[in-house]
Amino acid sequence: MAMASFARRKAYLLARNFSNSNPDALRYSFSLTSFSRGFASSGSEENDVVVIGGGPGGYVAAIKAAQLGLKTTCIEKRGTLGGTCLNVGCIPSKALLHSSHMFHEAQHSFASHGVKFSSVEVDLPAMMAQKDKAVANLTRGIEGLFKKNKVNYVKGYGKFISPSEVSVDTNEGGNTVVKGKNIIIATGSDVKSLPGITIDEKKIVSSTGALALSEIPKKLVVIGAGYIGLEMGSVWGRLGSEVTVVEFAPDIVPSMDGEIRKQFQRTLEKQKMKFMLKTKVVGVDSSGDGVKLTLEPASGGDQTTLEADVVLVSAGRTPFTAGLGLDKIGVETDKVGRIPVNERFATNVSGVYAIGDVIPGPMLAHKAEEDGVACVEFIAGKQGHVDYDKVPGVVYTHPEVASVGKTEEQVKALGVDYRVGKFPFVANSRAKAIDDAEGIVKILAEKETDKILGVHIMAPNAGELIHEAVLALTYDAASEDIARVCHAHPTMSEALKEAAMATHDKPIHI
Predict the structure, then answer these.
(1) In what helix (H) or strand (E) does residue 496 lie, and over which residues does it extend?
(2) pLDDT per residue over 131-161, tens digit each?
(3) Which of 25, 100, 125, 483 has the smallest number of Cβ neighbours within 10 A?
(4) Does the record's keyword annotation contain DNA-binding (predicted)?
(5) Which of 272, 289, 315 is the last residue of a domain?
(6) What is the pLDDT of residues 448-468, one digit of tens each?
(7) Would you give the DSSP letter of residue 14?
(8) Residues labelled catalytic
(9) Domain with 86 in it
(10) Within a domain: 301
(11) Which CATH number fits the domain that encloses residue 476?
(12) Rg (CA), the chain
């Protein structure tokens, strides 16, 4: 079986090399500025590439385009690069997740490791300052990368006036027109609102407001049991808030493997997070000191009320495509505002491309980055490749949950005969040594060929462990391939090896 999987990898590499020399072959692999100091002026000169949006997809696309020798300008309205992810999303939330976890560990775990002190308290302003410092350093770092790679940077709001021209209302109050042979729309996404709920970023907040609360709410209600809601609920729950999650669907994180999801929910409940599933919010009253929510069962029934100091609306995100002048140049969008593109990220308008959250696919920063690289490779006459079936997803709670590939429910729906291998971290020596052993690795593999179909991990640092699985799926590896790879001892990653052994044959340590 190991030799057979080696042959598959060799065939994959040959096919990939062939696609690099044959543009038409790529289809097999595709699933699914002016005014700023220190930057060159774009003026009326035509660029090879213009990128609207400086988030993960946009800034990566701009840097890659410049590295490929294309004259490039990036337009960003925020005034700082990195988009939602770096400024008010991925990065600040991970800073607070880490800081709050340290506080929680100090309260509940240090003593068992022989580290004792009389008291520990939260200095929320200092915690927020550390978060803000991390964000500021990283945004400045991207500006430095722009300078290094000679990317022109225009700070302002851009909108199309033709398929090759973008009018920019600059942040300084002026206007400039940026011209480009190829224009990439990388404007990302915005918070999805709910009918009848007005976000004021004080008592009723989006994820942006939840990252900047001036005090720890006694009671926090989270509307939506997705990635963002559970992460932010974890932050404030660790710091002392009583957290209740209200979700319309019957399950948390609907995209997650069902077995992992159930174990994950039990873990969060042990952390005192409360869940009200199959429940909809039908009214919100914030006229008093706090917020009063009116709830009823998703299927209808008697109404109840729930009070909170702060309500976090975390019902997902929506593509940011309004106000860009897309209708003026004829770029099509679907009913939710996404821009349909072909396998080369081209829209229906020649010379106009789109990547990241504004097109179909996972709304994830790392997916947008891959889109950006592949898109400019196509523009430069090379070949790009993004396989959305191989994009990992991570919930950065503690423990983390990470996955790649198919869930067991999806595999069953495909009608594929498969095997399942599991290994709990309670049997992993490193996890036991550090007294942090809650979690499991689950591998799904095709029964006949042993090809890995999906990997799901709930564990501390699952977001780091998942990448061995991503690489395995990318090269069509078999579970035996992972099982036969020597893993350092003692490490958490040995649990992945043992799960692979359980899938292919039998594990050793359970």
Answers:
(1) helix 494-504
(2) 999 999 999 999 999 999 999 999 999 999 9
(3) 125
(4) no
(5) 315
(6) 999 999 999 999 999 999 999
(7) H
(8) 489
(9) 47-190+318-380
(10) yes
(11) 3.30.390.30
(12) 24
